Amino acid sequence: MRRNVRVLVLGYGEMGHAMETLLGGRVQLDIWEKFPRDGFRSVVLEEAAPRADYVVFCLPVNPHREVLERITPLLQPGCICLSIAKGLDEAGQTAAQILADVLADRQPHALLYGPMISEEIRAGRYAFAQLGYRERAVYEAIHELFSGTRLCMEPTRDITGISWSVILKNVYAIAFGMADELRLGDNVRGYLAVASVRELDRIVLAMGGDAGSPFNLAGLGDLVTTATSEDSHHHTLGRMLARGEREGIEGEGVHTLQMVERYRLFEVNDYPLFGFIHAIVKEGGDVGVRFEEHLQRHFCLTDPGHAEPGT
Predict the structure, then answer these.
(1) What is the pTM of this model?
(2) pLDDT digit string, tens, across residues 183-238
(3) Could you read off the pLDDT of 239-257 as tens digits, one per residue?
(4) What is d(CA 268, CA 14) in angstroms, rounded to the nearest whole number?
(5) How many domains is the chain built from?
(6) Helical segments of the chain, H only
(7) What is the spatial distance between Cα 90 and Cα 162, in angstroms, rounded to a whole number?
(8) Do residues 19 and 84 both lie within one domain?
(9) What integer is the mean pLDDT of 84-103?
(10) Domain that holds residue 274
């Protein structure tokens, strides 16, 4: 990568640090943090935005619109905006929807989703992602930006599919934590993996994505990472719920459940496993008993001649 390329990273949390690890020393790197800590000196956003060739959003989805509206008039033509945010804002919109709404055709933009644990990137390990794009030149430019690093990516035009896959996988990961805390065993894990991706595929299709999209890195790949890692926040949430602990149950997956219900983005009860997780997060109860009831009602008692398991 040429040293005259300038990248502005927005947010100096875990993924901001990961982007610094990947790109530091390869490009001219500016990092903006709204609330800098530990002596970190943030660039001034209005000064850094006009000179950026790439702007990488390592922010939650909620501030995306505000920050985009602040910097869009300042960006040079051709500056590429790249988001890695995996959630919904308070209006129930994905990062992809916000980028498309604010930037339209004025600035090229893309989404990067997949198994990208910050700690592993910072330790020099491999990470994997799908790059959702509209113009081939945008994919080629971003691929070149990360060329030579241990972030491996593959292209897709199914922005809707990867967006909903990566957002909803956080919800399904909660069920894996519940099952592990309840010591339900590896066989149940296998069931959860299949049931989760089956439902994801149906939801993605209903939301306008491509059939089969969740079987790739942004869906199945990121689900396995999030659902099986003991360091995963959503896996931990599942364990807490199984222990009957309600305080501190928050995060992207919990927020997603709230937004899906508030805006009726889809009918929760059309998807049994999703509906089960939603009910536990919202209502609580004896998770062990409710898990047993779910398995019996929606899998073990299914007549294979009339319905597929999990439908």
Answers:
(1) 0.93
(2) 999 999 999 999 999 999 999 999 999 999 999 999 999 999 999 987 899 999 99
(3) 999 999 999 999 999 999 9
(4) 31
(5) 2
(6) 14-23, 45-48, 64-71, 95-103, 118-122, 136-146, 159-181, 186-206, 222-228, 233-242, 252-263, 272-283, 287-295
(7) 20
(8) yes
(9) 97
(10) 160-300
Tokens matching residue 29: 């790197």
Query: 222 with 239, same domain?
Result: yes
| Full strand arrangement of the beta sheet holding 80-83 | 28-32, 6-10, 54-57, 80-83, 109-113, 127-132, 151-156
159-181 helix and 252-263 helix, angle to the nearest 10 degrees: 120
**CATH code of the domain in which 58 resides:** 3.40.50.720
Question: Cβ contacts of residue 89 below 8 Å, gap of 6+?
Answer: 61, 62, 64, 65, 98
Per-residue pLDDT, 266 = 97
Judgement on whether residues 194 and 151 belong to the same structural domain of the protein: no
**Where do the H-state alpha helices sit in 134-271?**
136-146, 159-181, 186-206, 222-228, 233-242, 252-263
Per the CB < 8 A criterion, the answer to whether 206 and 161 are in contact is no
161, HSE (Cβ side, Cα atoms, 13 Å): 23
Q: Are residues 164 and 208 in the same domain?
A: yes
Two tokens at 246? 């309600």
Question: Are the C-beta atoms of residues 212 and 200 closer than 8 Å to each other?
Answer: no
Give residue for tokens 């990360």.
146
Q: Taking phi first (over 0 means left), then psi (-120 to 50 degrees means alpha), and beta for anything else, what does residue 212 get?
A: left
In a domain, 310, yes or no: no
